[in-house]
Amino acid sequence: MARRLVWLHIAREIYLRERRFLRLERRMIRDHSNPFEVREEDFTRYFRVSKEIAIYLCQQLHPELSRRRRSGLRTHTQVLVALRFLAEGSYQRGVGQDFLMAVSQPTVSRCVTKVTSSICDRLHQWINFPQTDNEMAAVQERFRANAGFPGIVGLIDCTHISIVTPAIHAEGYRNRKGYFSLNTQMVRNSD
Asked: Which of 18, 58, 141, 171 has a CA-to-CA distance to 100 between 20 and 30 Å?
């Protein structure tokens, strides 16, 4: 009986060591890929932003996205996974399985949630509308100088972003073309 317990203990130790080794090897593989090494044109086509903007986002979001555990994803990986999902507009599994990311669907979901929440927390830093008369006059002057349109403070556009059929109030999301979407609106300045 004692001999059997010793063998069970040894077998368990071997099993745990093998699992630790496999986990360590997987982390090393993930850390070896660097999406920033691809050409600028490919990077922009793949993520729909330039490397400069992606690096800026990584720097700005680092405090919220930094690793909590040694095995956690690096900030740049989380940001790029979320950007790829937003650029792709497709399923999370496909984003995680592509050649630069290699993460699971739940990881993609967590990255998208964390990155978009962090961006939303900082929106006031990046998005603002002219508040004073002097600011409005300056924006109007730039529109007049750039495009020849006097008295303009912003351009507006709307689009529909396709979504999966919602479980609740689905018909409220059906657009005039018959598919489910979110109606988004954007205002742009003259720069």
From this structure: 18
